[in-house]
Design brief:
2 domains; 54% helix
C-alpha cells in the first residue's frame, strides 16, 4: 500500500517536471534540459529512498500470541515492544480506511484501561484481522473471567 503511494507521488512529481519542460519548449521559451534531467533524477532518488524507508517500516511490525498475553513489536529507529495481557483488553477494533479496503487490508486495535495504550497491528488481510479479533476477544473473556 505504501509502495503505491510512494510511486504515485514520485510519478506525479516527475510528470509535472516533464509537462512544465514541454510547455516551455512549445512556447518557445529557453529550456534547460540539464535542470529538468537533474530534477527527474532527484525525484526518482527521493522515491527510491522513500520506498526503502516504507519497506523498513513494514518489516518493523510483528506480533505474537502467547498463552497469557499478546506481544506487539514496532519501530524502525526506536523499537517498542508492547505486552498486552488478554485479561486487560477491553475491546478490539478492526479498522480499514478507503485505501486499506482497496487492497483488502485492515488494522486491529486493542484497547485497554491504560490511557496510553496504542497497541495496533496494521497491514493484516481482512480475513486475518477478523480471525485475530475474534480469537483475542475469546481469550480476553476467558482470562478476564479468571480474575
Amino acid at each position: 500500500m505504501r509502495r503505491v503511494e510512494v510511486f504515485g507521488v514520485t510519478g506525479l512529481a516527475a510528470a509535472i517536471v516533464v509537462v512544465m519542460t514541454a510547455i516551455r519548449f512549445v512556447a518557445g521559451a529557453p529550456v534547460n534540459l540539464d535542470v529538468a534531467v537533474t530534477l527527474i533524477v532527484a525525484i526518482a532518488l527521493a522515491g527510491f529512498l522513500s520506498d526503502r524507508w516504507a519497506q523498513r517500516r513494514v518489516r518493523a511490525w510483528a506480533y505474537r500470541e502467547r498463552d497469557d498475553d499478546l506481544l506487539v513489536r514496532r519501530g524502525v529507529m526506536v523499537s517498542r515492544l508492547s505486552v498486552i495481557p488478554y485479561g486487560r483488553m477491553q475491546f478490539i477494533d478492526v479498522v480499514a480506511g478507503p485505501i486499506e479496503r482497496a487492497f483488502g487490508l485492515a488494522t486491529v486495535r486493542m484497547h485497554t484501561a491504560a490511557a496510553s495504550s496504542d497497541a495496533r497491528i496494521p497491514g493484516l488481510t481482512q480475513i486475518e484481522a477478523g480471525r485475530l479479533r475474534d480469537h483475542l476477544a475469546q481469550l480476553g473473556e476467558a482470562k478476564a473471567a479468571g480474575l
